[in-house]
Amino acid sequence: MSANSAVEPGRAVRERISPPTRAPKKRLPPKIAGRSMVGLVWAGPALVAYAVFVVYPFTQTVRYSLYDWDGFGSARFVGIENYRRVLTDPQLAGSIGHAFVLIVFFTVIPVGVGLLCAAALSRVDRGPVGGLARAVLIVPQILPLVGAAIAWTWAYSSEGAINQLLRAVGLGGLARPWLADFDLALPAVGLIGTWVSLGFCTVLLLSGVGRIDKSLFEAARLDGAGHFRELTTVLIPGVRREITVCVTVTVIAALASFDIVYVSTGGGPGTETMVPGVEIYRLTFLSQQVGQASALGVALTVLVLAVVLPLQWLGRER
Amino acid sequence: MTKRWSPTHMMRYALLLALIVYTLLPLISMLTTALAPEGSVPRGLEWPSDPQWGNFRLAWREADLLPLLLSSSLIVLAVVPVSLVLASFAGYAFAFLRIPGRRVLYVGFLAGLALPLEALITPLYYQARSLGTFESRWAIILPLIGLFMSFGVFWMTNQFKSLTPELQQAAQLDGASQWQIFRHVHLPLVRSGLSVLGILYFLWTWNQFLLALVLVSDPHHRTMAGALGTFQSQYGTNIVLLCAAALIVMIPSLLIYLVFQRQFINAILQGGLK
Description:
Chain A has about 325 residues and is mainly alpha-helical. Chain A is built from 14 helices and 2 strands. Chain A has helices spanning about 5-15, 35-65, 80-90, 90-120, 125-140, 145-155, 160-170, 185-210, 215-220, 225-240, 240-255, 260-265, 275-285, 290-315; strands at about 65-70, 75. By secondary structure, chain B is mostly helical. Chain B has helices at about 5-35, 55-60, 65-95, 100-110, 120-130, 140-160, 165-175, 180-185, 190-205, 210-215, 225-235, 240-260, 260-270. Chain B: Belongs to the binding-protein-dependent transport system permease family.
């Protein structure tokens, strides 16, 4: 466990290879390892675990998605009918639409505000206050999303903290049970995601800003760049990689959200906050439409890939 | 130095303070609520005149929290070490050994990073029933190990790849076995990367909700997040006890976070930077 084991093995090997080897460097074997089956043995356990609990279940999901099946009785092959319904059924298509709305709250706001905060805070970042802030801002990432959802559900309720604050500043007219409001429930749920993502994005972007060469800022200032120019010409290009990471992680969290929505609203009121994750759960376990749930699952996977893959490509290009 | 207390500087501290308050607000609201007299209708943000610290004891008893903590810990103790070992072996193989179809296999692992758990949950349910693990902790443990392989293999492969191949060649020339080279040369050098992975695995296990919700109904066999979900449906109307129980459930992760704060922050930042 301690530091000495890091030294020990290196030394052990060096001692064993220390007698000056007579074999000249050119004679090193071109391929590092011997027979190819050895590698397969090493990777085997991980491959098996992955194949049994990820790959195989996914092939099953694809198979189920082509059938009309209640999970118990006999299944009827329906081809792409379930997929057609994902696109045409208002509730199913609506859940996908809601997932995209959540991207605004899980990704756009946290990355945008995070960037502004990182720009403003890059100079107070160091020192005890910065350290404390960093530690606190990461806390929402440590807590289970279920806990975040419970805390916010209470904060949004009639007697909760949000309404109390509104009344305190004289905006009591706006007070309402937010999660029961047909128009505002989705943004309210989204803002729970904002709370979870904002600190993570801010701290990650701050660490990126810290790596930007200081002379670039000076050069920009000498050129007479204002804060805005500085942001667009130095800061944002400098943290391009961090932005890609924030966007990727939070977009997946938005599209595949489950915990926050399930605990705070369960998809309601009505289906105003229904998202694909909760809809899949509902279809399989509450209304026994396994085929339909599976088609939505495959559609969700394709959607995540379609959004995430181009992001990776954008992040790499330079 | 002279600019230390300039207005812009003060503005920056104000912004920092606002961010901190925003982050803590819902948690503070939970605390003040948990301290209100039980059975009362508490206000969201108001320090109670007579804080009822006994509510925490009550919640601990009512919600039977000790077995829940044990259950979560057992799941973590099974998932984290096994996942770390499997991911290290596979990462080592992808970095240094020859594997037939290696690129395809590697991309196959990577694809799992974008695979939402919801797309697997229905088959995992039927699988758990047929394996006979349904309603037991194994129903959570086994799939989690499989699910963790995507990130773990990716992470460990990169860790091993960052080492120089000369080490491997030198040790091999010397006649050390593959296992010796792995155990005594390479593994010690990726120890910090391994601990980052361990921290992330711990968090992802402790906070896993969907698997617990679907595969295990008894909270005594669930993860902590799963147990929290049970509370919410049980005590949804008793907001005081719910807040007290939820806080207790979140304390272990917070404590571990306080102790390993630097490592956690590194883990979350590096884990994000995939």
